Amino acid sequence: MSEKAEVVDGKKKASGSVTFFAWTFIIVNFIGLITSPGMHQNYSFLAKNTLTWMVLYAVLTSLAGIVAGIFLLFLKEWARKTAITLVLIGVLGMIVFVPFNHRYASIAAHEPKSIAVYEKQYDKLPPETLAKIQMPREEFISRMATAGEKVIRVMTGVFEVVTALYLFLLFWFFTKTNVRKQFS
After folding, report:
1. Phi and psi angles of residue 140, each rounded to the nearest 5 degrees, phi first
2. Closest-CA residue to 145 (of 176, 172, 106)
3. I want to staple 149 with a disulfide (CB 3.0 to 4.6 A). Which of 17, 56, 109, 120 is the partner?
4. CB half-sphere exposure, 49, CA atoms < 13 A
5. What is the number of alpha carbons within 13 Å of residue 58 lying toward its C-beta?
6. What does the pLDDT look like over 116-141, one tens digit per residue?
7. Mean pLDDT of 40-46
């Protein structure tokens, strides 16, 4: 991808790489915006006041990210600085939210809905399988909940690593000299 802005009809046009990163910024923030209300389900263990502030944070930063992403396409310097600021806020947000994510993993795997699923799985096992595993129902359900918690923690950890790498990549890209020059 080109890293130099082109001049088309007397107007600067963003390079391919700036266009790519601007669109990813728009799309990622749009996904954040539409999934923000779902935080109420994932973090229902938090005090309502804390949860409201978390959702408000997610909505406002996502909206700001969408606006900044749109104006990155028009090579506006304030949009580049806003994107960098939002990336740094995102890093701080990750530091705050990561403990909540791991608490959610523990709660989700052991909540009554999950336990009901494990019970149904046990009840559907054929007698020959039950004879092979030689495990009481309660122990099976307990082990399933523990395994479920581990799976959720791994998935959450992978998501957190990918998010951190994405934020690092955005910060690196929008602070590069040849990219900054396009916005001046």
Report:
1. -60, -50
2. 106
3. 109
4. 0
5. 21
6. 888 998 899 898 998 888 888 899 88
7. 67
- Calculate the alpha carbon distances from 116 to 111, 123, 143 in Å: 9, 10, 14
Give the list of residues 6+ apart from residue 80 with CB closer than 8 angstroms, or none.
72, 174, 179, 180, 183
* pTM for this predicted structure: 0.77
pLDDT at residue number 156? 85
Write the Ramachandran bin of 104: left for phi over 0, alpha for psi from -120 to 50, otherwise beta: alpha
Q: What is the mean pLDDT of residues 28-45?
A: 81
Q: How far is CA 170 from CA 20, 35, 62, 127, 148, in A?
A: 11, 21, 15, 55, 33
| C-beta separation of 24 from 2 below 8 A | no
The structural domains of the chain, with segments of one domain joined by +, span 6-182
pLDDT digits (tens, 9 = 90+) for 111-121: 888 888 889 98
